[in-house]
Design brief:
With 350 residues, the protein is of the alpha/beta class. It is built from eleven helices and 17 strands. The chain folds into two domains: 2-140 and 312-344, Medium-chain alcohol dehydrogenases, catalytic domain (Quinone Oxidoreductase, Chain A, domain 1, Alpha-Beta Complex); 145-285, NAD(P)-binding Rossmann-like Domain (Rossmann fold), CATH 3.40.50. The two termini are 15 Å apart. Bound molecules: zinc ion (2 copies). One zinc ion is lined by residues 87-88, 91, 93-94, 99, 102-104.
Length: 350
């Protein structure tokens, strides 16, 4: 089968691999769609270490092709989404109810081969039968679970508003969609006018184009006027220090500032302790998902309140994927979705 394999920072390419055989408690999943995540780009850039060689891809949906020992053959032929992460349930963080920080965390496309391939191996308990949910939506289960886990830090549906989202990229706009579906007053800032417009089309009541660097003093008063006072919650989806520092400047008294974007390891921010102190700001961070947020994502997708097709680029082939992972091609602000070319795939033996 074809697969896209990560070797070293900057080295990721199309490879051929044997179709794997499912072991105890596992199934062989024929991958129908797999999404490319910012995390995949960071792995390729060397910002996250994963054991290599590794087939990347943790946002996937497919059809069960074969079952291993101990798995009911009734699974065969079922179209499923996949919860890519597994948590040990016994480490101190799992026992504290914070499995996103599990010390024995396992994940497809990270500790195990993932979905950028014709076929992949998944444990049966990670499968989520789609039961009518569109296949494309299944690709969004994991990113949406991460968004919901992040918003949980702010209070979930009780997140105080107005909310300002910095960065109207794919996950910024997904964040906007969720907040709008919850009836929150939300605005965005982004350097790209098209993305600001797109976020407003997806439920943001206001948006501002901000320069990538440099001062933006003129925005502060406009933000305050929009908020009708002070901004209660601010979310960085960019991981860029300048964005985080601006949010800390714009935060109102008692505001919560949530770090959701992935920063490079060399990034640093400068914080004025006096600003934190006098406004009693809270800085929060969220870096993953949990079984609970995954279930919440499934439920929210079933409610049909989100427009995921507006965030998804037309599917590309596995051959085209390395160029996107290496940043040589760009999906124009949409999520890259791979459709492994089944015509070019070998069939597994029974
Ligand atoms: Zn992801
Ligand atoms: Zn654990």
């Amino acid at each position: 089968m074809q697969s896209v394999t990560y070797f070293l920072p900057g080295e990721v390419r199309l490879t051929r691999a044997q179709i794997p055989v499912p072991g105890d408690g596992e199934v062989l999943l024929k991958v129908l769609l797999a999404g490319m995540c910012t995390t995949d780009r960071h792995i390729v850039q060397g910002h996250f270490t994963v054991p290599s060689p590794r087939i990347l891809g943790h946002e996937l949906a497919g059809v069960v092709q074969a079952t291993g020992p101990g798995v009911s053959p009734d699974w065969t032929g079922k179209t499923c989404g996949v919860m890519p992460a597994r948590f040990c349930g016994t480490c101190s963080m799992c026992r504290q109810g914070q499995p996103q920080l599990c010390q024995n965390f396992e994940c497809l496309g990270n500790t195990h081969d993932g979905g950028f391939a014709g076929y992949t191996i998944v444990r049966v308990e990670q499968l989520v039968p789609l039961d009518g949910l569109p296949l494309l939506d299944a690709v969004w289960l994991e990113p949406l679970a991460c968004v919901l886990q992040a918003l949980e830090q702010l209070g979930g549906r009780d997140t105080p508003d107005p909310v300002l989202v910095s960065g109207a990229g794919v996950l910024g706009r997904l964040m906007v969609q969720v907040l709008a579906a919850w009836g929150k007053q939300v605005a965005v800032v982004d350097p790209n006018p098209d993305r600001v417009d797109a976020a407003q089309a997806m439920g943001a009541q206001a948006g501002w184009v901000v320069p990538r660097t440099g001062p933006v003093s003129d925005i502060a008063s406009a933000l305050q006027a929009w908020a009708g006072g002070s901004i209660a919650a601010l979310i960085d989806t960019t991981g860029q220090p300048v964005s985080i520092e601006r949010l800390l400047d714009w935060a109102g008294p008692r505001a919560r500032v949530l770090l959701f974007g992935v920063s490079s390891p060399s990034a640093h921010i400068t914080i004025s302790p006096q600003k934190l102190f006098t406004r009693e700001l809270t800085i929060l961070a969220s870096s993953g998902m949990t079984p609970a947020s995954f279930t919440a994502a499934y439920t929210l997708l079933c409610s049909c309140q989100l427009d995921l097709s507006a965030l998804s680029a037309p599917p590309v082939s596995l051959e085209e994927l390395p160029d996107y992972l290496l940043g040589k091609r760009s999906p124009n602000g949409l999520k890259v979705i791979v459709s492994p070319d089944s015509a070019g795939q070998d069939q597994p033996h029974d």
